Amino acid sequence: MRRTRVHVDLPLAEGERVVLPIAARDRLLTVLRLRDGAPIVLFDGQGLDWPGTLRISRGEATVELGRPVPVATESPLGITLAQAIARGEKMDLILQKATELGVARIVPVVSERTEVRLDGERAARRVEHWRRVVIHACEQCGRARLPVLEPPVALPVFAETAARSQAWRFVLEPDARQGLAVGDARRPVTIAIGPEGGFGDRDLAILRAAGFEGVRLGPRVLRTETAGLAAIATLQAVAGDLR
User: Which overall architecture, per CATH, does domain 79-239 show?
Assistant: First the structure.
């Protein structure tokens, strides 16, 4: 029987009884309608699944933890997706599917043509929402490690940091002459994806100065919500864990 997986930001140990946070409790009892004694799996993002048994008493939900199980669902290829922030549900879709495809790190980037502007409290709320999207994707797909989700950053700042890394660095350009490929799968990979309308000339110049190579994915122009996912899937199929 498939067990429901729930992420908790709590210390876990064999034999302990963990009190579930309110949000997790409400989801399990109200949405999923689980009953007392239901099998459940907790994970804290550190690479282990903790099988347990759900206990419900007086409105409180707890989980009796058993022996942890190592989870081998991470890709050997460390992929960073630098995604220019997309509007609304498009960004949610990108985060969800990139997590399912095994991306290791996600950096929301503010570029010249980015239409979504975030600052202060609005940015904090949006990042927390994105984090929940990533967590739910991990719960569904079986990952026991959360991909790193960075706060939004301006493209020049991101490029300056990326230039100092040892990663393969690519930017998706429909007019590029070369396809997406890595010469050494032991090195991490960073792929930069533009917003609706693509990266502007100034953004491309910044990325090229930081060592990003322009690459293409076939003869068609892909939407921003398609491009990053296609790139990740291509990298995973060639040098990651979809082989």
Answer: 3-Layer(aba) Sandwich (3.40)
How open is the CA angle 227-197-126, to the nearest 5 degrees?
75
CA–CA distance, 67 with 15 (Å, rounded to integer): 8
pTM for this model (two decimals): 0.92
For 4-70, CATH number out of 1.10.620.20, 1.20.1250.20, 2.40.240.20, 3.30.70.270 equals 2.40.240.20
Q: What is the pLDDT along the chain (243 residues), one digit of tens a residue?
A: 567 999 999 999 999 999 999 989 988 998 889 999 999 999 999 999 999 999 998 888 999 999 999 999 999 999 999 999 998 899 999 999 999 999 999 999 998 877 667 677 777 888 899 999 999 999 999 999 999 999 999 999 999 999 999 999 999 998 888 888 877 777 899 999 999 889 999 999 999 999 999 999 988 999 999 999 999 999 999 888 887
The domain spans of the chain are 4-70, 79-239
SS3 label, residue 54: strand
**Nearest 5°: phi and psi at 6?**
-135, 130
